[in-house]
Amino acid sequence: MAILHGSWINNEYDRHLFIWGEMWRAMASVAPPTDSGVSPHPLAMTQAEFAKFSRSHNLSIGKFSTTSGENNSGSRKGNLPPNLHQWQEQIIALPTQPAAKGAAAYPLLSSKIPTTEIDSPPLVLQLWQVEGLCLTPLQAVKFLQSLPLGSFKASDAYVGAELRFWSQICRWSLDLLTRCKFLPGVYRQSNGDVVACWEPLLDSATDRERLAKFIQIMPSACRGYLGMGSGE
Question: How would you class 197 by CB atoms within 10 Å of its CB: exposed for 0-12, middle for 13-18, buried for 19 or more?
Answer without folding.
Answer: exposed
